[in-house]
């Protein structure tokens, strides 16, 4: 009988090697998949992972790397804090959408006024909207014992319908000839989130992501709240004896992750996205879950993982244009990456043993 036996003394380097092995296994499995589909696997892997950085399209792709990585890192930092405490926010995509809607609503309400206060007000509204959406599963868990996993996930679909209603109704551009979607915020200077340094892709969302990495590290390593989070994740019962209030921790983690996701949605709506449409929401909230785990729930790891996942987005788009690969290439790669990460992580924490559970070790 095949069984898994917990490792009593796993080597320290295994936690670092696991994400690397998962990435390599994803490349190999992806290459085999492309070969079965009739594509050159070497050309496909090179186009996805090499060309965006060093190929002919690098001048365009490199700035886009930060544009794509910014929201992933910002959302993943919030998710990682909750995951470390054993609080599972799976609905960051919904908080991202609601944050974008709330932030854009401030700009559209102020239009066509001018003023330096507009964009900061949009950022605060985006964070507040994401926080409020994240607090729904927090309240339901604390008061009724509902699963935050199911509630937060189901709220994603509610947020998607809310975005569609806004695009076809209250937020529809009155000068848009009846087409769904809000005004283009990039064409409204006080509400725009432009590139701060030409040719780099850096906008305020990228700056916020960098700040989130630093703040998350300080919180988890230098603050009493971070200690409470770590204790709650490792030993929930011990956390209670240490004076940690589980209800307060749930509200803090879900509220914080929701606020960061909402800010990411606002930066996208005011920047690369430009407007609220019926399809607002690019899957960043779900991909950020992979980023958090690939980065081992550590801020530095999240930074590197966010850049890697952003590379798959850009490389997948290049592969569609240059090799005519299917549009689902990115989703396939991300799904493989999560699968291999979980598989190697399991092998890192357990040994594979043959025989019955009661048998002595060989």
Automatic annotation (TrEMBL):
<dbReference type="InterPro" id="IPR001851">
    <property type="entry name" value="ABC_transp_permease"/>
</dbReference>
<feature type="transmembrane region" description="Helical">
    <location>
        <begin position="202"/>
        <end position="220"/>
    </location>
</feature>
<feature type="transmembrane region" description="Helical">
    <location>
        <begin position="12"/>
        <end position="37"/>
    </location>
</feature>
<keyword id="KW-0812">Transmembrane</keyword>
<feature type="transmembrane region" description="Helical">
    <location>
        <begin position="69"/>
        <end position="87"/>
    </location>
</feature>
<dbReference type="GO" id="GO:0022857">
    <property type="term" value="F:transmembrane transporter activity"/>
</dbReference>
<feature type="transmembrane region" description="Helical">
    <location>
        <begin position="248"/>
        <end position="267"/>
    </location>
</feature>
<keyword id="KW-0472">Membrane</keyword>
<protein>
    <submittedName>
        <fullName>Nucleoside ABC transporter membrane protein</fullName>
    </submittedName>
</protein>
<keyword id="KW-1003">Cell membrane</keyword>
<feature type="transmembrane region" description="Helical">
    <location>
        <begin position="149"/>
        <end position="168"/>
    </location>
</feature>
<feature type="transmembrane region" description="Helical">
    <location>
        <begin position="328"/>
        <end position="347"/>
    </location>
</feature>
<keyword id="KW-1133">Transmembrane helix</keyword>
<dbReference type="GO" id="GO:0005886">
    <property type="term" value="C:plasma membrane"/>
</dbReference>
<feature type="transmembrane region" description="Helical">
    <location>
        <begin position="94"/>
        <end position="111"/>
    </location>
</feature>
<feature type="transmembrane region" description="Helical">
    <location>
        <begin position="117"/>
        <end position="140"/>
    </location>
</feature>
<dbReference type="Pfam" id="PF02653">
    <property type="entry name" value="BPD_transp_2"/>
</dbReference>
């Amino acid at each position: 009988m095949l069984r898994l036996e917990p490792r009593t003394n796993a080597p320290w380097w295994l936690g670092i090697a696991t994400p690397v092995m998962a990435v390599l296994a994803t490349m190999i499995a992806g290459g085999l998949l492309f070969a079965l589909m009739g594509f050159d696997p070497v050309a496909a892997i090179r186009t996805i992972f090499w060309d965006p950085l060093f190929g002919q399209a690098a001048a365009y792709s490199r700035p886009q790397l930060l544009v794509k990585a910014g929201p992933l890192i910002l959302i993943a930092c919030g998710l990682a804090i909750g995951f470390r405490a054993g609080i599972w926010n799976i609905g960051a995509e919904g908080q991202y959408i609601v944050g974008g809607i709330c932030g854009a609503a401030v700009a559209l309400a102020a239009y066509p006024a001018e003023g330096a206060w507009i964009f900061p007000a949009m950022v605060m509204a985006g964070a507040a909207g994401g926080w409020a959406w994240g607090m729904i599963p927090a309240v339901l868990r604390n008061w009724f014992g509902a699963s935050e996993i199911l509630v937060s996930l189901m709220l994603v679909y509610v947020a998607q319908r809310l975005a569609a209603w806004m695009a076809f109704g209250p937020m529809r551009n009155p000068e848009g000839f009846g087409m769904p979607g809000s005004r283009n915020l990039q064409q409204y200077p006080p509400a725009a989130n432009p590139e701060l340094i030409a040719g780099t892709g850096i906008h305020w969302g990228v700056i916020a992501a960098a700040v989130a990495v630093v703040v998350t590290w300080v919180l988890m390593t230098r603050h009493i709240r971070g200690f409470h989070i770590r204790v709650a994740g490792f030993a929930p019962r011990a956390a209670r004896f240490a004076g940690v209030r589980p209800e307060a921790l749930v509200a803090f983690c879900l509220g914080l992750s929701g606020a960061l996701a909402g800010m990411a949605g606002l930066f996208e709506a005011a920047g690369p996205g430009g407007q609220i449409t019926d399809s607002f929401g690019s899957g960043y909230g779900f991909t950020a879950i992979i980023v958090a785990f690939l980065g081992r729930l550590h801020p530095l790891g999240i930074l590197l993982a966010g850049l890697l996942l952003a590379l798959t987005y850009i490389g997948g788009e290049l592969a569609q244009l240059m090799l005519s690969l299917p549009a689902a290439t990115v989703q396939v790669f991300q799904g493989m990456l999560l699968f291999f990460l979980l598989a190697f992580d399991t092998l890192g924490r357990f040994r594979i043993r043959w025989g019955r559970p009661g048998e002595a070790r060989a």
